C-alpha cells in the first residue's frame, strides 16, 4: 500500500512538521498545552501527578520526533539490525532518563520551577515500568540504553504485561504480594492498532502437495489470538538515535466479542473468549532463576516469538532481498532460553510458508540466532513436556524432532565410539513424560552461545554444555561480561558524584566512555577532592536514612557503616548467611562489657528483595530478617550499634537511592552459582566496597580494582562439589558460631522457632547444599576485617576512590560493542541532522 504523501503536498507537511522544543519557554508551553488539552486539567486542578504527566508528554513528543527520524535513517541505511528478544525489560522510570539522554534536564528543572513544581517531586510521581524479575530483566534495559547510545540499529521485543512484577508489602514480617497494575495511563507507549499479527495455537498438521508438486506441511484449524504492537521509544544518550521497544499485547482475533455467539444469546461465552485471549499477555511470571512449566507461560513464549518473527520477516521481505541475505540483515539474540521457540518458528516460516529446502533454511536459522545463558542452576534450566508442546504447537514439535534427528545423525557420524553421547545431547530427554530441553535446542540453533562473566562462561563449557564443546569445538562458546549503563547508575542515581568527576575530567564524556574514569585516580590524594567525595557519600547515606525512616519507620544513624544486600531472595544468593551473621553480631555485642561496646563499629544491615510467591524458603528468610530486626532494633542495650532494616518492595527506582548509599554491599553467593551479578558493579561505581565470594563478576571486579580493595571470602567454585559430598559422607562438624546462632533461633528469641525449622534444617540435616556452614567462619572473620578497615576512614576513602576510577570496564557500552563485533556483526548507523 502506497502511504506516502504525494510530492505536490509535501511542502505543506514540511512547513508544519513538528519541531523539538529547545528553550525553557517552549518547554513550559508544551507542558501547559498537554495539561490543559491532553489531560483536560487546569491551573485549579494541577497536582504533581498532572505536572508529571504533562512533562512526560512534552518529552515523549520530543522523543517521537527523533524516533521517527531514526527509523527512517535506519531503513534507508539498509544495514543489519539486531533484535533483542527478552521476556523481561526492567526499565524503571523513563522521564528522568529521557531528560538526561536528550540533554534537557536543566531546562526542564527551571521550567517546572516557573510552573510551581520541584523536579524531584515530579520525577518521583512516575511508577516503575517493572516488566522483569531481577538481573536478567535489568540487563536487557541497560542493553537498550547502550544500543541506542552507540547508534546501533536495534529493536527490543517483549510482552506488554498488564501486571508487572508484584508489589511487595511486608505485613507482620511476612511478604504479601499485591498486583502491579501499571497501565492506567502510560504516556510512553504508542498503541499500533494497525500493526497486528494473528497467532495460532493447537490445531493439527496435514501434509499436502503444493502447486509445484512438493509435499508440504500445513498447520491448521487452531485457535487464533491476535497480537497488537505497542511501541516505546528508547533514546540514546548524547545522540538523536531513538530505538524501538515493541511490546505485544494479546486480544481475541474477532475483536471485542464474538458476534455470532453474542447474537445467539451466549453472552458469557462471547466475552469469555476475549478474556481467554487477553490472559496471554496479562501477567509477568514472578519466578527468578526457576522454571515452573505452566501451559500459559509456554503460550506467552510462543505468542511473543511468533509475533516478533512475523514482524522481523515482514520487514525483511520489504527489501525484496534473497533469503540467503537474511542473516546479513538480521541478528536475533535470545535472552536466556525463554525465546527458544523462535528457532523452530523461523524454520517453520522458511520451509512451510516460504518454501525453502530444509538445509538452506536451517543454515539461515543458525546464522541468525545467538543465545545468552544466564545460569547453570539446574532448577532454572527450561524443559517443556513433549505432550504439552504436541498439544499446543503440533507443527513445532515435528520440527524440533527433525532438528534433533539431523543433529544426532551428525553426532553419531562424528563420534561413533561414544555410545552414551547421543542420549546425553539429545534435545529430547527420555523421561516420563518426555521433555524438550530448551537450552540444547538454543545451543544447536545458534551460531554463538555466551555466558555473562568469565567464570560463568568457563563453567557452562565444563558443566551443562560440556558435550556440545566436544561436538562443535570451543569457538561456538564465548564470554561477554555483563555491564551497567553509567547514565542511570552513576549520573542519574548520583548526580553529585557525576558532577565532581566531570569537574576534574573537564567534561561529562566519561558517561559515554567510562574508561575515562581512570583519570580520577590522579586525585586520590587531592584534599579537596577527597573531602567532596566523602561528603557526597555521607549525603547519599542521609538520603537513604530519610527514606528508611519514611518507608519503614526505623531511625538509623548515617554515621554508621551501611551494609547492604539487595537482590532477589534466593538460597543460592545466601541472604540466610547474612542474617545468621547479623544474629551472631547481635549476641556478640550483648555479651560485651560496656567498655568493649564502646569500641564496636556501629552498623546498619539493610536487606531488600522479593521472593517468588511460591518459594517458601525464600519467604522464610524474609520473615527471619524482619523478626531479627524487631528484636535487635528494640533492644535498648544495642542502640545504634546495630540496626536491621528490611526495605519493602525493592525495585529499580529504589535501587537508584540505595546503590549510592552503601559502605559495603554483599555479593555472597555460593561460588559458581551467581552467573555474573550486576548490582556489585553499581555499588562499586558509586563508591562502596564489596564483601563477596569468588563468583561471577566479583572476580573480574577484583582484577580491575585490585584485591586490596575488595573483601573476598569463602570456598572456591572448584571445591564446591567435594564439600557438598563431604556433608553426606564424612564426619561433618558444624561451625560452633553458627551452631550458637541456630540454638538462639531454636530457643524462640526471634519468635516461634517452628517457623524457622525448615531453614535451619536445610543446613543442619539436609546437606547444606549452599555451603552456609562451610563459609560461615570466613564470612564472620571478613566482617571483622571490614569493621577494622572502616575505622581508618582515610584508607577506606582511598580504596573507594581508587575503585571508582577502575570501574571503566563495566559499562554496558563495552559489553554491547563486544556483542556487536563478536556475535551480531553489526555496525552503527550514525544519525544525520536532516532525516533520511
Ligand atoms: C539468571 F537464570 C537467571 C534468571 O532466571 N534470572 C536472572 O535474573 C541473572 N538471572 C543472574 O542470576 C545474574 O547473575 C546475572 O547477573 C543476570 O542474570 C544478568 O546476566
TrEMBL record:
**Modification type N6-(pyridoxal phosphate)lysine: residues:** 682
GO terms for biological process, alphabetical: glycogen catabolic process
Q: Which reaction does it catalyse?
A: [(1->4)-alpha-D-glucosyl](n) + phosphate = [(1->4)-alpha-D-glucosyl](n-1) + alpha-D-glucose 1-phosphate
Is this entry keyworded Transmembrane helix?
yes
Under the heading Pfam families, the entry gives:
Phosphorylase
**Assigned GO CC terms:** cytoplasm
Provide the E.C. number(s) assigned to this enzyme: 2.4.1.1
Q: Classify the source by domain of life.
A: Eukaryota
Q: Which cofactor does it need?
A: pyridoxal 5'-phosphate
Its biological purpose: Allosteric enzyme that catalyzes the rate-limiting step in glycogen catabolism, the phosphorolytic cleavage of glycogen to produce glucose-1-phosphate, and plays a central role in maintaining cellular and organismal glucose homeostasis.
Provide the family line. Answer: Belongs to the glycogen phosphorylase family.
Write the protein's name.
Alpha-1,4 glucan phosphorylase
What species is given as this protein's source? Acrodontium crateriforme
Phylogenetic lineage = Eukaryota, Fungi, Dikarya, Ascomycota, Pezizomycotina
Amino acid at each position: 500500500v502506497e502511504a506516502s504523501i504525494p510530492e505536490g503536498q509535501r511542502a505543506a507537511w514540511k512547513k508544519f512538521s513538528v519541531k523539538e522544543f529547545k528553550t525553557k519557554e517552549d518547554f513550559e508551553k508544551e507542558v501547559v498545552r498537554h495539561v490543559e488539552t491532553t489531560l483536560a486539567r487546569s491551573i485549579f486542578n494541577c497536582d504533581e501527578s498532572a505536572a508529571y504527566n504533562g512533562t512526560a508528554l512534552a518529552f515523549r513528543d520530543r522523543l517521537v520526533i527523533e524516533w521517527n527520524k531514526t527509523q527512517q535513517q535506519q531503513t534507508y541505511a539498509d544495514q543489519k539490525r539486531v533484535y533483542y528478544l527478552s521476556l523481561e525489560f526492567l526499565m524503571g522510570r523513563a522521564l528522568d532518563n529521557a531528560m538526561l539522554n536528550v540533554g534537557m534536564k536543566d531546562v526542564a528543572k527551571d521550567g517546572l520551577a516557573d510552573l510551581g513544581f520541584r523536579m524531584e517531586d515530579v520525577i518521583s510521581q512516575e511508577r516503575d515500568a517493572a516488566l522483569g524479575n531481577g538481573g536478567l530483566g535489568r540487563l536487557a534495559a541497560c542493553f537498550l540504553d547502550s544500543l541506542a547510545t552507540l547508534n546501533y540499529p536495534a529493536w527490543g521485543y517483549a510482552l506488554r504485561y498488564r501486571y508487572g512484577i508484584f508489589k511487595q508489602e511486608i505485613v507482620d514480617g511476612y511478604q504479601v504480594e499485591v498486583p502491579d497494575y501499571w497501565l492506567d495511563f502510560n504516556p510512553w507507549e504508542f498503541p499500533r492498532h494497525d500493526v497486528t499479527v494473528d497467532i495460532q495455537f493447537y490445531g493439527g498438521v496435514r501434509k499436502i502437495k503444493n502447486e509445484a508438486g512438493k509435499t508440504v506441511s500445513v498447520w491448521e484449524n487452531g485457535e487464533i489470538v491476535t497480537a497488537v504492537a505497542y511501541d516505546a521509544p528508547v533514546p540514546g544518550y548524547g545522540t538523536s538515535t531513538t530505538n524501538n521497544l515493541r511490546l505485544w499485547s494479546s486480544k481475541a482475533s474477532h475483536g471485542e466479542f464474538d458476534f455470532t455467539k453474542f447474537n445467539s444469546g451466549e453472552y458469557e461465552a462471547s466475552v469469555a473468549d476475549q478474556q481467554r485471549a487477553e490472559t496471554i499477555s496479562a501477567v509477568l511470571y514472578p519466578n527468578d532463576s526457576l522454571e515452573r512449566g505452566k501451559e500459559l507461560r509456554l503460550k506467552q513464549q510462543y505468542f511473543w516469538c511468533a509475533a516478533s518473527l512475523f514482524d522481523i520477516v515482514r520487514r525483511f521481505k520489504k527489501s525484496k532481498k534473497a533469503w540467503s541475505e537474511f542473516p546479513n540483515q538480521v541478528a536475533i539474540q535470545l535472552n536466556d532460553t525463554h525465546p527458544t521457540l523462535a528457532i523452530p518458528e523461523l524454520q517453520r516460516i522458511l520451509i512451510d510458508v516460504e518454501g525453502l529446502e530444509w538445509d538452506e533454511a536451517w543454515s539461515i536459522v543458525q546464522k541468525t540466532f545467538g543465545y545468552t545463558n544466564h545460569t547453570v542452576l539446574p532448577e532454572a534450566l527450561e524443559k517443556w513436556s513433549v505432550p504439552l508442546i504436541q498439544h499446543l504447537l503440533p507443527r513445532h514439535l515435528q520440527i524440533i524432532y527433525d532438528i534433533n534427528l539431523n543433529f544426532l545423525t551428525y553426532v553419531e557420524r562424528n563420534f561413533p565410539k561414544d555410545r552414551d553421547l547421543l542420549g546425553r545431547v539429545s534435545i529430547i530427554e527420555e523421561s516420563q513424560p518426555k521433555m524438550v530441553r530448551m537450552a540444547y535446542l538454543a545451543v544447536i540453533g545458534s551460531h554463538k552461545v555466551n555466558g555473562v562473566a568469565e567464570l560463568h562462561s568457563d563453567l557452562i563449557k565444563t558443566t551443562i554444555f560440556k558435550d556440545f564443546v566436544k561436538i562443535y569445538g570451543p569457538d561456538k562458546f564465548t564470554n561477554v561480561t555483563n555491564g551497567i549503563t553509567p547514565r542511570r547508575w552513576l549520573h542519574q542515581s548520583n548526580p553529585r558524584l557525576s558532577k565532581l568527576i566531570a569537574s576534574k575530567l573537564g567534561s561529562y564524556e566519561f558517561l559515554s566512555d567510562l574508561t575515562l574514569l581512570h583519570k580520577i585516580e590522579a586525585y586520590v590524594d587531592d584534599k579537596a577532592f577527597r573531602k567532596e567525595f566523602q561528603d557526597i557519600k555521607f549525603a547519599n547515606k542521609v538520603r537513604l536514612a530519610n527514606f528508611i525512616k519514611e518507608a519503614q519507620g526505623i531511625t538509623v544513624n548515617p554515621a554508621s557503616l551501611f551494609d547492604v544486600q539487595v537482590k532477589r531472595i534466593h538460597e543460592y544468593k545466601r541472604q540466610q548467611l547474612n542474617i545468621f551473621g547479623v544474629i551472631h553480631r547481635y549476641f556478640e555485642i550483648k555479651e560485651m562489657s560496656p567498655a568493649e561496646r564502646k569500641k564496636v563499629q556501629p552498623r546498619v544491615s539493610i536487606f531488600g528483595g522479593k521472593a517468588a510467591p511460591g518459594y517458601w524458603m525464600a519467604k522464610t528468610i524474609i520473615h527471619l530478617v524482619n523478626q531479627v530486626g524487631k528484636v535487635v532494633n528494640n533492644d535498648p542495650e544495642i542502640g545504634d550499634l546495630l540496626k536491621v532494616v528490611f526495605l519493602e518492595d525493592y525495585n529499580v527506582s529504589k535501587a537508584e537511592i540505595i546503590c549510592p548509599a552503601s559502605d559495603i554491599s554483599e555479593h555472597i553467593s555460593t561460588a559458581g552459582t551467581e552467573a555474573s551479578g550486576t548490582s556489585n558493579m553499581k555499588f562499586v561505581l558509586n563508591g562502596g566496597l564489596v564483601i563477596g565470594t569468588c563468583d561471577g563478576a566479583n572476580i573480574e571486579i577484583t582484577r580491575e580494582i585490585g584485591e586490596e580493595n575488595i573483601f573476598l571470602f569463602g570456598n572456591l567454585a572448584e571445591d564446591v562439589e567435594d564439600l557438598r559430598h563431604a556433608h553426606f559422607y564424612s564426619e561433618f562438624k558444624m561451625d560452633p558460631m553458627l551452631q550458637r546462632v541456630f540454638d538462639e533461633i531454636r530457643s524462640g528469641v526471634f519468635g516461634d522457632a517452628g517457623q524457622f525449622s525448615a531453614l535451619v534444617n536445610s543446613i543442619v540435616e539436609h546437606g547444606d547444599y549452599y555451603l552456609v556452614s562451610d563459609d560461615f567462619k570466613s564470612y564472620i572473620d571478613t566482617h571483622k576485617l571490614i569493621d577494622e578497615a572502616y575505622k581508618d576512614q582515610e584508607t577506606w576513602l582511598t580504596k573507594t576512590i581508587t575503585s571508582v576510577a577502575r570501574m571503566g570496564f563495566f559499562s554496558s557500552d563495552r559489553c554491547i560493542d563486544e556483542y556487536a563485533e563478536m556475535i551480531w556483526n553489526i555496525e552503527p548507523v550514525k544519525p544525520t541532522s536532516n532525516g533520511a
